[in-house]
Amino acid sequence: MPDHGLTRRLARELLRQAFYISLAVLVSMFVAGKLIEDVLIKQALQGEAEYYWNRAEQYGARDLPDTQNLTIYREGVAEGIPSDLARLEPGFYDRKEPRDVTIYVNQRGVERIVLVFEAEQVDELVFLFGIIPLAIALVVIYLSTYMAYRVSRRAVSPVVRLAHSVQALDPADPDPQQLLSETDMEADDEIRVLANALEDLVMRIGEFTERERRFTRDASHELRTPLTVIKMAVERLSRDPAITGVSAETLQRIRSSADDMEHLTKAFLLLARETDRGLAREWISVNDVAETELERARMIAGNDQVATRVEQGNVLLVYAPEQIVESVIGNLLRNAVTYTEEGEVKVTLSGDSITIEDTGPGMEPELVEQAFKPFVSRQRQRGGFGVGLTIVRRLTDRFGWKVEVESQPGRGTRVIVRFPNAKTRALP
User: Fold this and answer.
1) End-to-end CA distance of the chain
2) Closest CA to 416 of 354, 373, 371, 368
3) Are strands 343-350 and 306-312 parallel, antiparallel or unpaired?
4) Is the pLDDT of residue 266 over 80?
5) Which of 152, 144, 139, 198 has its CA nearest to residue 174?
6) With helix as H, strand as E and coil as C, how does 197-262 read?
7) For 280-425, CATH number?
8) Average pLDDT over every residue of 312-340
9) Position 141 pLDDT exceeds 80
10) Which spans in 169-188 are helix H?
């Protein structure tokens, strides 16, 4: 759902930012703690060394202070400087073994002192005092992230509800008023502007669709009357024995064109329906429809140079209105037979699909890509489909069927229609 996608992306982005900020804070505090520790210890040791020399010069004191965390060694005093420390040059040194200590070697003239500081206590203090600010910082970060998420989710929720409203619109009878009613009245002005724009767009699309549907329906109905008159006149003339030769061929062309127009008008009437209410659905045998429509296509084309055959691997049953199945299969077969001057038109039924192959002129690759557009490939010499394939595509899309077109110039065209929800059974 759209809200899930949007809110999840928002949450992930906020969490990602919180993680990076937390990582930056953690690293910064760790580095700062180490720097502070290092600076503080070094300054303290330098101060202790300076203090000791001053006292020694002022009072001549040679006693070495010995505290819990600090030990001072001097040449010639007590046991002197341990051999492992006596080799060190003036400066600072860190040792971790056998214990964590910071060593400061200080030299004044020819005399030298070594200060050894137990750094473990300082590490614990730095760790302790670093944890508390770190914890506070992380709590503030994640609370801020959570509040930002709540505010952002509240800000986008009107958009999400608006998307749900658009998704719930009935294409057959859209109600644009529900778009704005579903949007919170306290929503931002931008949301109300968007809702109003969508409302206006839905109204315009609905009006346009209705005009198109009404025109297609009315035009198709109006065409029926002259087509009926033409067919009746052709039938009367065909019974006249005086009509022979070229006149008879012309009359056959008129009959074929009238039949073709009748099928096209029927397809347009089907397309003019926004829904399929009123069309009875039943299990239709694609095999029977293919054989019937193939015979009709042969009669309309009137070309005896084209052979036709049907190969059946199984019985293919489709749950759909019979008029729809007839229109899809009929359009494909009439195109195949009409645009094949010689050779063969083969119909193959196998599995959940029907394949129609012809030996016509075929089409160029760029023409195949545009085959579903009306009138793009109208030329007979190139094996075009006119509006036939466009009608097929629109009807198959409505029922979730798949149409594939394969064609090569000079080698013919293959059209495959797949019925995902079809049933199959063995041939009797």
Assistant:
1) 47
2) 354
3) parallel
4) no
5) 198
6) HHHHHHHHHHHHHHHHHHHHHHHHHHHHHHHHHHHHHHHHHHCCCCCCCHHHHHHHHHHHHHHHHH
7) 3.30.565.10
8) 88
9) no
10) 177-181
- The residue among 219, 160, 217, 164 whose CA lies nearest residue 191 is 160
Q: 3-state DSSP: the chain helix, strand, coil percent, rounded to 5?
A: 55, 20, 25
Residue type, 291: E
- Report the SS3 class of residue 332: helix
Contacts for 160 with CB less than 8 Å, ≥ 6 apart: 2, 3, 6, 7
pLDDT in tens, 215-227: 666 666 667 777 7
Delimit the CATH 3.30.565.10 region(s) of the chain.
280-425
As given in the structure block, the two tokens for residue 30 are 């760790």
Lookup: tokens for 181? 């009613």
Decide which of 116 and 318 is more confident.
Answer: 318
Lowest mean pLDDT among 34-43, 302-311, 344-353: 34-43
Q: pTM for the complete prediction? A: 0.49
Residue range 32-40: average pLDDT?
66
